[in-house]
Amino acid sequence: MKVLLVDDSRLARTELRHLLTAFPEVEVVGEARHAGEARAQLQALKPEVLFLDIHMPGETGFELLASLDEAPQVIFTTAYDEYALRAFEVNALDYLLKPIQENRLAAALEKVRPRLAAPVLPASPPAEAAATPLGAQDQVFVKDGERCWFVRLAEVRLFEINGSYTQIYFEDHRPLIPRTLQHLELRLDARVFFRANRQQIINLEWVESIEPWFSNTLKIRLRGGPEVEVSRQQSGRFRELLSL
Questions:
Q1: What is the overall mean pLDDT for the chain?
Q2: How far is CA 215 from CA 198, 208, 229, 242, 243, in A?
Q3: Mean per-residue pLDDT for 97-119?
Q4: Is residue 16 within 8 Å of residue 77, measured between CB atoms?
Q5: Which of 31, 154, 186, 241 is buried deepest, with most CB atoms within 10 A?
């Protein structure tokens, strides 16, 4: 696994290189201090994985990616958590906060291995590709106030409107994110996530029971709660979706 380290901090590059020595399959083929150096080394060295800082002199990590015709698998390394959602929107595999922990680095590398044989994704996908559904095994970054989580979508049982935010139900957590259900519906895999009504999107894998409700509608109980009433129109779609 050939990797390139891009960070304007020599200390950060040295520390990451040291952490990567714990993974014998990883070969650090080069380092770059800024986007210009990274662009040249990407062309010359053809790394398979790019560990990329966001804030650098001149161009940011996002601007570097946008300038490339194609890019290797990308893992962002940064001291700032506010760019995580944007990072996943450009198909980053992971988002490591400094100081990088070895267990988080190991988890990021685990995501790389099954993808190395896959075609390289465009660094700056066209608009229609940006809406590629996120599958159940994809991981997303969630921040609510001072708390942060990396969550597999398979673990999320419900998205629910709460004022001008959307509340996410996973485990015992209920963080709020500044996203609309319309936005989420475009991003989520429709084979897994179903718009039950104007207020809620459910994960079909978490459905525990279904019962007829008023006016030909349905009531669905999710494992771990809560109960969700499916609108009349969506009840018809739900029956079609699950019928043979």
A1: 86
A2: 17, 22, 12, 20, 20
A3: 83
A4: yes
A5: 31
Identity of the residue numbered 47: P
| Per-domain residue ranges of the chain | 2-128, 139-242
Do residues 142 and 156 lie in contact, with contact meaning Cβ atoms separated by under 8 Å? Answer: no
Spatial contact of 225 and 240, defined as CB atoms under 8 Å apart: no
SS3 content of the chain, % helix, strand, coil (to 5): 35, 30, 35
Classify domain 2-128 at the CATH superfamily level.
Response regulator (3.40.50.2300)
Q: Could you tell me which residues are beta bridge partners of residue 131?
A: none
Name the token pair of 154. Answer: 């398979």
Helix residue spans in the chain (DSSP H)? 10-20, 35-45, 61-67, 84-89, 102-112, 127-130, 181-187, 232-242
pLDDT band at 51 (very low <50, low <70, confident <90, very high): very high
Using CA atoms, how far apart are residues 160 and 166, in angstroms rounded to an integer? 5
How far is it, in rounded angstroms, from Cα 224 to Cα 69?
45
**Can you tell me the distance from the alpha carbon of 159 to that of 92, in angstroms, rounded to the nearest whole number?**
23
Amino acid at 181: L
* pLDDT score of 126: 42
pTM beyond 0.90, yes or no: no
- Please say if the pLDDT value at position 100 is more than 70: yes
Contacts of 21 (CB under 8 A, 6+ apart): none
